[in-house]
Amino acid sequence: MKFSLRRARMTGALTAILALTALAGTAPAQAHDALASTSPADGQTITTNPGKVSITLNNAPETGVPGSNTIKVIAPDGHTASSGDISVDGATLSIAADIDHPGKHTVQWRAVSADGHPIEGSFAFTYAAEGETHSEAAAPATSAAAVPATTAAETPAPETQASAPASSQTPDNTGWFIGIGAVLLILVAVGAYLIGRRAKTGTDSTN
Fold this sequence. Notes:
Helices cover 33% and strands 25% of the residues. By secondary structure, the chain is α+β, with helices and mostly antiparallel strands. α1 packs antiparallel against α5.
């Protein structure tokens, strides 16, 4: 009986160690790659056609699966302004884009991080042709008494916003599942310990 009690305690201790190890691995499992910057930047107004749109991750993406990394640029009128295949240079992914429609462009992207988990998001920028931006300022002024002076708010100006992370990234819930499994392991360990104590109590009472 003493041998069975000792075995039950050893089993409970090993189970508890495994549970703690699983809990310790929960945090790293959630630390997937993330978006570091975009070009153009999120919310930026550009005045020339850049010819391409790029995103940069904090680590180089996985490129082993064709079509796993995508960038789609949608013009203000709804047509797709991007074309061709994704090019990867280290942690930067780029796609050719013909930006020639004035207005807000939306970029939807998806990439597979180095640990194999997909991440995705979107951002937007505005295109205003340089000639259109300065057309109002170049127009001759009329009578100041009859027409108010053009305010700075009427003339769109490029923003000097730094590169910012995409506004939406799909969270990964892998860590939650690992945490739930760890809790179940702890419950098993506690149950084994209680069974061992009950067996010992029964032995002592019998003696």
